[in-house]
What we know:
The chain has 463 residues and is of the alpha+beta class. The chain has helices at 4-14, 72-85, 116-133, 197-200, 203-219, 238-244, 251-255, 316-322, 355-360, 411-415, and strands at 21-37, 40-58, 61-67, 98-99, 137-155, 159-178, 181-191, 221-222, 226-232, 276-279, 300-305, 308-309, 330-331, 340-341, 345-347, 364-377, 382-394, 397-403, 406-410, 418-421, 426-427, 433-436, 439-442, 444-447, 450-458. A hairpin with a 2-residue loop joins β17 and β18 (397-403). α1 runs parallel beside α2 and α3 packs parallel to α5 (203-219). The protein is globular.
Amino acid sequence: MIDEALLARIFQAALRYGGEFSDVFAERRSTLAFRLQNGQVHEGIVVASTGVGIRVVCGESAGYAYSEDISEAALLAAAQSASLIARHSPAGSARAARIAGHLPTLYPQRESLGDAAAFAKLLERAESTARAADSRISAVNAHVADEVQEIWIATSDGRRVHDRRPMLTFGVQAIAGSGGQRGSGYAADGGRTSLEYFTTHPVEELAADAARIALLNMDARPAPSGEMEMIVGAGGGGVLLHEAVGHGLEGDFNAKGTSLYAGRIGERVASDLVTIYDDGNLPEERGSIACDDEGNPGAHTVLVENGILRGYLLDEINAGVLGMARTGNGRRQSFAHLPLPRMCNTYMPAGTSTLDEIISSTKHGIYAKSFAGGQVEISRGDFVFMIAEGYLVEDGRITAPIKNATIIGNGPDIMTRVTAVGHDAQLARRHYTCGKNGQYVPVGVGMPTVKISAVTVGGTADA
């Protein structure tokens, strides 16, 4: 989007009053989305945006300005604004461009959005399948969104990177009702892929799953309350790992000393059964990035290994503060935002136990197959999560589905209570979006089935 001659003038203006280095993030994004409700496809949305953000880095802080106007005058004005914010720091300088090597091929490099008529047919097929599952399905909602984000990154130290990132998401909600009882179920799929993905992963499977969960929740019994064992389901259970542990491993919280994990590299922070990775290099996964939003390659980062803390998720600034290598986790929502250290695809690898072994070893507990959402207090790791699909486990057997179950605990604490890890590790193909400092980025989560010896459950029935 910006030629080398103009980049040189931008960096000259950006570093005029000081700063260690500067970078330019240019973006062009196109989005197409539809929603189905009450049997009709509507709320069609087409959005296109273009803009440039300019940053001047000064130690642990940065000056930042952006513009939706990409004329030379507007970009030089933005560079000057960023420089004024960052003045009083040592002067930096621009170097000759060094083009980055070929980025890994992690997703289709498509230039255009998918076919609108084809998306509408997918929504109609999903609704038809969900309603046909059972006469008690009273409503079906579905949505699809397709996006292509093209980015160009240039830094004053000579880095030049270009990437084109697709993102496709499809979700189905089914609502069941009968005799005064109601239940809701949701299923989703997608990632950095294209419309052809749904030829081998039919939306009918999502719709059937959403209807199954809705019917299950309609007939489920009230959840018990109290402290008990918990089995966390493979795949979607990874959202617990993301929220309760992952955020505490992001570099800014550790550089500031506000995380429970600050200064603890090399220490035991979890059961020796626990290993946690973050990976930006998984093909077509939602959180994958060939390069991060600072131009660094996405990477496989070992965070916890057999219970020992090995590393943090780092962007340029916090890597410098901590004196550690950057990990390719500098991410931003758009050109209008500063990059922050963020997760990509955070997951736990497979263990050795079978699901049957884990269930049969559970005397009194719950099986949280998937979660509906929750929140975490990062400085302490305290969390609250709602279970979307859950079951009661008694004397080594799954006995009944439960509803209205909430789990309450502390992330670092429950990681020390892991007593079994299944061999069924998988990533959850849902459209998880992580919020931080008002910014939202797509992420992936995953894990095998995991048993935790004790967790507090909030329910409406006695334990």
